[in-house]
Amino acid sequence: xxxxxxxxxxxxxxxxxxxxxxxxxxxxxxxxxxxxxxxxxxxxxxxxxxxxxxxxxxxxxxxxxxxxxxxxxxxxxxxxxxxxxxxxxxxxxxxxxxxxxxxxxxxxxxxxxxxxxxxxxxxxxxxxxxxxxxxxxxxxxxxxxxxxxxxxxxxxxx
Length: 158
Ligand SMILES: [Zn+2]
Known about the structure:
This protein has seven helices and three strands. By secondary structure, the protein is of the alpha+beta class. It has a single domain, classed as Beta-carbonic Anhydrase, Chain A. Strands 1-2-3 form a three-stranded mixed sheet. The relative contact order is 0.17. The chain binds zinc ion. Zinc ion binds next to helix 2. It comes from Penicilliopsis zonata CBS 506.65. Its cofactor is Zn(2+). One of its GO terms (cellular component) is cytoplasm. Its EC number is 4.2.1.1.
């Protein structure tokens, strides 16, 4: 990313999820927006993600089941599009992208992001996917303003 050490405040978890009841990720967003005044929030996934792959398999993974169910929910939301992709790897990669986009939505659903944007016009939320094969970061170019507008119809907290 061409940035100095410490310039990015990072939170990591399995399959870059932003569950609304996860106190860790919610605290990170709160701190980053309200105290660090970050201008950008990036949800960064990666192709060939083991978490997403696990969600695509019919296996009981114990404690991981509720976490991975978030990804199965993303599949259900985009079932038509995903089922239309014949190639298994391409379908897997698309689910990785859709999961990033859904996590972006979950970031935008927070009061912190909505209120800060209303008052200060930041942060802007971005969805990226890292490809371990070529080492490149791919910007999914989500339309933040349109996504915010759509979300506020039902999830408005500002
Ligand atoms: Zn992963």
